[in-house]
Amino acid sequence: MDTVDKLNNVILFDGECNFCDHSVQFIIKRDAQALFRFASIQSEIGQQLMNAYNVPNSIDSVILIQNKKYYVKSSAALRICRGLNGGWKLFYYLLAVPRVVRDAVYNVIAKNRYKWFGKKDSCMLPSPDIRKRFLG
User: Do you know which InterPro entries this protein is assigned to (predicted)?
Assistant: First the structure.
């Protein structure tokens, strides 16, 4: 496997969050080229990536590692959309909206994700093809 500082297009997600899990499933279904790889923030590889890219532990967001940088909140979500099939690519252009506005919407969802969608006690068991895309 690549060293953590050479990994690209990695999505770090909250492995305990139902909404986050559904978001990963959403991405997998629309990422026909298997561009993205995944790791939970709580995993060892997730923690190694956060340390390698100096991501503050206080970040409560999806994190995208791409081209030796990390992106969080709406910036991560919109950059992920760019890699998806179909009309989802158009959401990438919302990066033109000021980040403070985009992140305000993102923060409402993130703050309420456990209350609205719940927490998981166990992880999904992906098929072998999908399992290859998960790190750690």
Answer: DCC1-like, DCC_oxidoreductase
